[in-house]
Design brief:
It is built from 14 helices and six strands. The longest helix has 19 residues.
Length: about 290
Amino acid sequence: MHIVFHIGAHCTDNERLLRCLLRDASMLAEHNVAVPGQGRYRKLFRDTLEGLGEAEPKEGTRDLLLDAVLDGRIAERLVLSNPSFLCPPNRVFEEGQLYAMAGTRAKALGQIFAGDEITIFLGLRNPASFIPDVYAQSSGMAFLDFMGGTDPRQVRWSDLVARLHEALPRAQLVLWANEDTPLIWGDILRRMAGTPDAAFAGEYDLMETIMTEDGMGRFRTYLAQRNITGTAQRRRVIAAFLDKYAVEEEVVEEVDLPGIDNALAAELTSAYEADCTKIAAMPGVDWIAP
C-alpha cells in the first residue's frame, strides 16, 4: 500500500486540504484512494506513537491500525492528514528545536509500515508569521517557555527536513511554501491523492477566501469560456486574477508578537526564502513551486 502522511505544518492550510479531499472521497474511492475522516485515526495514531516512544512496534501493529482506519474498505493508497502528527502546537519548539520529535515519529511510522510505500507531505511557512500563529494555539504558555530557548533567527525548516530524511530515508518528501499555496493548490491536491488528471470540487476553494466576490465570479467565467490546459497555464491565470482581485488583508500576513518587530520579521523572511531554495535541492525532496 502507498500511505500518504500530511503532517502539517501547523497553521498552514488549516485543514482545508483534508476537507477538499473528503468532498471528493467517492471519486477518489473509484481510483482506490481512501481518505478517511480525521476521527477514524488521529487519536488512534497519537496514542500508538506516544505509546511507542523510541521502542520498536509490536508485530501486528500495522494491521490493527489499518483495520481500524479502513474499516473493511479496499484501497491501494491511503491519505492521512494531521498537523499534529509530529507533536501538538505547544511542543513545536520543545528542547529548543523546531519539531524536535520529528525524527522519532518518522522512524516509528517507517517501522510500523515497513513494507509500504510512504510519502510525507509538508507545507512550510515563514517563521515571522508561523511563530506567532502557532504560539496562539499553545494553550496560554509563556512565550519564552513555548520557544524552549530557541532563537527565532536560528529557525530553519531545512534542519527539520534533514532529520525527517535521516529517520526515514526511503520516504519521498513532498514540500512547498505555504505562501505559494494559492497558485499550487490544485497541484497539491492531485499529488496527495495520486490522481494527476483529476478535477477536484474544491480546487479553487482557497482562492475564494482571498479574492473579492467580483473577482472570483470573473475568474470562474474566464475558466468556463476558455480551455485552460496544463499546469503552467493554469498558474498564470490564477496569478493574474490574484494580482488584480486579491483582498490585501487576506494575503498580507501581519506579525503580532512582542519581540518580533518589522526589522526582525524582514530578517526572518530573508532567511526563510534562502532556506526554501536550499530545501528544494535537498535529497529526497520533491519541491512544488509555482
